[in-house]
Model the fold of this input.
Amino acid sequence: MRRCMDDLLPLGRIGIVGAGRVGRAMALGLGPHSAAAPLIWSRSAGRAQAAVAEIGNCLAVDRLSELLEACDVIAIAVADDAIPDVVAAMAANPMVAGRFIFHVSGGSGTTILDPLENAGARTAAVHPAMTFTGNPRREVERMMSARFAVTGSSPDAAAQARTIVAALGGTAVEIAEAQRALYHAALCHAANHLVTLIAGASEALASAGVAEPGSLLAPLARAALENSLVSGHAALSGPILRDDAGTVARHLQAISDGSPELLDAYRAMAQATLDAQQRRSGLAQSELRAVLSRDSVLPTSPVRA
Done:
């Protein structure tokens, strides 16, 4: 991936704490803007060396203090539960005033970085709203069109966070500290639960004898996703929109018989869809609610043409 020299931003030397998927992508994406080869530190020296071997043009360091001493901009790219320990370890070292340190967690804001701010650093949360699968070069390309949730501990820190996003080619979206958890929950609901939904549908199709469930689902699911991104709940189609309780009842019976592991998820999503439909239309759709009740008796009548 090449960048025009005019696109490069003066960020000082970049440091990456963490050598996992996000850390590697950050090292690769921010590397061209670094005044010297980016430094990578990981609790596992082997992972840091592997990251350097994969990315190139960066260096692994053995001591976290070495990275803190040498780098002007530091990204903390570790698992959410590991952030407090990493922050404590960083704060135990002398801090050059004005260092810019940010984490890439979605669910946390800047409060988790308070020990570093108290030591003189500028801090922020910079979360790329995308998934990372372990292909740094592809993920750097995806970050160029991604939104990043930015929360700064101060106006100056927020401005620096936006500079980081610009260096990665993304678009910054300001998220208030108090709203970070809700923001992250919304993303997980959209992305993680979508995986569960599609995987469950694919397994049910396989049980129904479909040889390539993904190929069958792809056009339908992509259209539904695109339509819902544009129109929200107005993109809804299917039996709940039509108030077709009989069809939903037969779905429940068929799932119970042929793919029972899908039953709870189908029922929960149908109920959520019904609730959303009622908020829009004001109609109770009581027959559908009775069918979806866990206490309802599943029908045994044959499927109608």
Summary: The radius of gyration is 24 Å. The beta strands are 14-17, 39-41, 59-60, 73-76, 100-103, 122-128, 147-152, 171-174.
